[in-house]
Every structure is written in structure tokens, then in C-alpha cells.
Write a structure and sequence with these properties.
Mean pLDDT: 95
Structural class: mainly alpha
Low-confidence stretches: none
Radius of gyration: 11 Å
Order of helices and strands: HHH
Largest sheet: none
Shape: globular
């Protein structure tokens, strides 16, 4: 598991309110099906912004960006490219 994925899973464990352990989920598992609510996704987004020193632009504030560890990692990679 990449360092980025591990950091994302830690944030999901702390803020995602998942019914399933974040460590046990596949990278492409649907986090909303695993119990994350839209309210929890906001908390996850804020924690991600703090952890990775990024700001999610309005264009990224959609369910699909926060749907899985893989989609979150892709967004983080995009936001941190060139830094």
C-alpha cells in the first residue's frame, strides 16, 4: 500500500464513520456503501486538506471524488502534482 493510500485510510478511519474497517476495504470499494454519509465525507475532505496541504476546488466537490480510496488518491495526486 502506498504512503498516500495509508494516510487516506487513517483519515477514513478517524472521520469516515464507516461500518467496515477502512484497512479491510479494497481500493475501489464504494465508501458510501461502506457507511460513509455525505456529512462524514465533508469531514473527510477537510481532514484530507489538512493532511496533504491541498484545497479541493469546486469542480472536485462531488460524490465520485470521495467514492473510494482509489478515487481520493487520484484527486490527491492531481492536486499535489508538481509540488
Amino acid at each position: 500500500m502506498s504512503d498516500t493510500a495509508a494516510r487516506i485510510r487513517t483519515i477514513l478511519k478517524e472521520h469516515g464513520r464507516l461500518a467496515t474497517d477502512a484497512e479491510a476495504l479494497a481500493d475501489d470499494a464504494d465508501l458510501y456503501q461502506a457507511g460513509m454519509t455525505s456529512h462524514a465525507s465533508v469531514n473527510v475532505m477537510l481532514a484530507l486538506e489538512g493532511e496533504f496541504d491541498v484545497e479541493f476546488p469546486d469542480a472536485m466537490l462531488k460524490r465520485s471524488v470521495f467514492e473510494s480510496v482509489a478515487s481520493i488518491r487520484a484527486a490527491i495526486d492531481e492536486l499535489t502534482a508538481g509540488t
